[in-house]
Protein: Aminopeptidase N
Amino acid sequence: MSDNAPTVIHRRDYMPPPYRIETVDLHFDLDPHRTVVRNTMRIVRRDGVPADTPLELLGEGLQLEAVTLDGVAAEASDADGRLRVAAGRASFELTVTTHCDPAANSSLMGLYVSNGNFFTQCEAEGFRKITYFLDRPDVMATYTVTLAADKEAYPVLLSNGNLVESGPLPDGRHYAKWVDPFAKPSYLFALVAGKLVALEETIQIADGTPKLLQVWVEPQDLPKTRHAMDSLIASIRWDERRYGLPLDLDRFMIVAVGDFNMGAMENKGLNIFNTKYVLADQQTATDTDFANVEAVVGHEYFHNWTGNRVTCRDWFQLSLKEGLTVFRDQEFSADMAAGEGDAAQAASAVAVKRIEDVRMLRQTQFAEDAGPMAHPVRPESYAEINNFYTVTVYEKGAEVVRMYQTLFGRDGFRRGMDLYFQRHDGQAVTCDDFRQAMADANGADLAQFERWYSQAGTPRVAVETAYDAAAGRYRLTLRQHYAEDRRSDTPADPLLIPFAVGLLDAAGRDLPLRLNDEPESAAATTRVLALTGAEQTFEFVGLPIDGATPTPSLLRHFSAPVIVDYEYDDAALAFLLAHDSDAFNRWEAGQRLATRALLEMAQTLSAGGQARLSETVVDAFGKVLADDTLAPAFREQALTLPSETFLAEQMIEADPGAVHAARTQMRGRLAEAHAALWQRIYEAHRTDGPYRPTAVDAGRRALRNLALGYLAELPDAAAATLAETQYREADNMTDRFSALGALARIGGTAAQDALQDFYRRFEHEPLVIDKWFALQAMQPDGAARTIDTVRRLFTHPAFNLKNPNRARSLIFSFCAGNPAAFHAADASGYAFWAEQVLALDALNPQVAARLARVLERWRKYVPTLRDGMEAALQRVMAGARSRDVREVVGKALG
Ligand code: PHE
Ligand code: ZN
Structure:
């Protein structure tokens, strides 16, 4: 196989495996440099497979020691990462003994060492780095695992399932034996060994059975585990309540590790987490960190049913488990946030969660869908599966699942889930199986809905409206299409789009809506229209005769992952921002208003002109600012301008410098025009009493810190004083870090002093030092150029390229989180990017490929930047060796 053309794997080529592996008995002799793995498998040839079909097990970087077939040394050839065994029988026991070098494993896939302890990561194809196996998700086996290791260095020995035996061995070693009663694919295997301690709790689930819950961490981190444990308990309760899904093992363990490529991993009964999503306390974690821990703990726990009990037939079906599980964790977080206050607070908390998710979807997934890596929720092909853990598979996949709920309601969705588990528990299945369960449980035909899985690109829905005041009729014409320049050859047929709408009267009240063929009793204020054709007209009747033209509220709560094209004028947007009963669309109106203003300003600046912010916009935002009836968390969202990344994506040719200048100017103008209001908000939103990371308190802090940020845009010294005081007096990381951010923006010696103080205070807290690096990498160019700061920090003793969190905190924060500085005209950012992609490529291809993706949209940028990007991409293409990076860069250049 040539290095230039990596093998591409196609969904249509799926074939079931010729052999089944029914049981796996693994024995590990753990040693950091030479771990010996003895793997005994009971293997059965599948019916109808010719007897002379060789068994081919996959392996990567393994040293083969011995192979025995039914206890007798066997012939086996070991080439190209495949172990071929001529078994010649229908059922047999195969033992393969290999060894590997975990301490030398910097890819963090397979078995590796982190801070002296052993961990594994097997999804998607890491199990083959541990032993030879049919390393594919449709091979489900039950596992028995024995771990043997030095007792002093590795007192704790964990694997999936239940502990059945443990004890001493000669030479200061000891062992533990674990049995997982549930058949599972190899990607869910895990082991952990080392010096760890656990926060433990025993709970009873609904049927009364006791369950042992553990959160394992390094000893110094034990005080930071309470929130993860509470989140785990809440997740268990929620899945029982909402879906009737119980915890099926006697014990459930979460383990934190400081070196991890992703967020966390749902290994059966032994979830392994990036420390970032486990550890949290008031002093070191922000409100966002607390919320993320809750969401990720929930996500991995929910995988126990959606992913583990029912798994994926092949990796093209990844969204079957990820889209569904992201949807479930979103719903969980929304319910948790809503559980605190009164009904109005609850509704607002749910809207805020939706806003956060949609903001992220639009910023990242819409861009992915418009670029060279565009792929459907269920991809058709890949070179490296690690590159397909994408926002399309995860977040767009979650939107697709959400649409079932929008179409069938919560109860209908639950019926579909029940049927899915009834049919497929214990199986490895496809996205089609899930869709079929939803259809059958609801007596619906979801054939057209399949297109959401097979068509790439973001659909656009163009809306036209016509109001016949004399007849009290309102017509809505919806047209769906994909953008002309969609970069995908998947079909572009009309989708089934649930399109939620409302109509507001002149006073801003919802009008009851009834379609022309419906009885009066059908009227509701939000209607979910089922758009199935390329173009369709819906007519609402029975509206007040001779009333003023209603204002449409389109795609309420973002009922489908599409872009709505409708010619709102500024006045209509300001009106919706002030009145829409749908909180999501209220926010949306503000974002549209701000986006349009910012794009106009950026265009003007890009052409060398002077930009001005319209007073309509200044006033509309002032109204939100002054409206104390709005929940603080919602107000914070409404007053947060669209990100620079999102804005650049909306330009015909992205100009990050102009976007940054426009956004800075708008922030400055909003700060100055409403200085007194910002000041009042800052004063009025102190949180009294002890720190609690609840949605309500977090919302108050967020709004107050947003106010501080706006005040920091003003030229006077007052904000610096506020920020300094807040920095010093803060009793929690949210307030301290926000104050540090405000000081850093203001600059000068106060900023330098605070940054130094912050480092000294948290020198021994890696997750906080990550924040310290990130904050500096995300500063706009000022007296010093940020690229110079980043290069200097690169040589800081605390910087470590091998640790993914640290690499992300400095390198990704600069390359992806600081567009204006990164896209400097002299291409200095691109040179840095190319160096770092190549350095990471040699260490950790998965992380390198993520960084490589930062430049995949290079064709979108103004011509003056394109050449520099192309040159950097070519440099990486010439030097990169991993399939991961080569696939990404190859597609970007192709
Ligand atoms: N399956 C993990 C999750 O979604 C993500 C993951 C993928 C982690 C690959 C590690 C490696 O939660
Ligand atoms: Zn997941």
In short: Residues 9-302 form a domain with the Immunoglobulin-like fold (CATH 2.60.40.1730). The two ends are 20 Å apart (CA to CA). The mean pLDDT is 97.
